[in-house]
Amino acid sequence: MKLDDLARLQLTYDEVGCTRYDETPVGLHRLECTERIGAGDEVFQRAADALLTWRMHRVAGFGTTATDTPPRVGTDTLGLLNLGILSRRLQSRRGVPIPCRVVWTVDEPDQIGFAYGTLEGHPECGEESFLVTREGDDVHATIRAYSRGASWYARLGGPVTRRAQHYAARRYLAALRRLAT
Length: 181
Fold this sequence. Notes:
Layout lengths: L28 E11 L1 H12 L2 H5 L4 E3 L9 E6 L3 H6 L5 E13 L2 E8 L5 E12 L2 E12 L2 H29 L1
Antiparallel strand pairs: 1-7, 2-3, 3-4, 4-5, 5-6, 6-7
């Protein structure tokens, strides 16, 4: 799968935009991690820059290519998940493709970020958002996702798959903190 191939793919879930809201859609698992990553305007700007240039993804160890930088609604992204020997059996030697499309963005004085939704071929089904917010002098980062397994191996993984998602969210937050301070 190549980045150019994603334009023809459809989103794999009906609850588009769900990560903007606090209510968990029926049938999806919720993940939410928020962390204070620093304080002040410079921290907010560096965190926003790291998020909007995809550096957060790369530093977290999840290489992602995208059709647009900064992300905008309709931007397609392609990551690769390396599952070792399982990747070779499932998709390719390079890893399992993780195709997504940006479904909403926010760019306000005290809040910046975006969400992407899963496309056909993604092992999960759902949406994940990345927000940097400023409350007074404090700067926070929030990762929120609603998902369910789409592939047989993600469904079979159940709690292990959800634990891996929490691990990924923590890596994103650590990367943002490191890049912003």
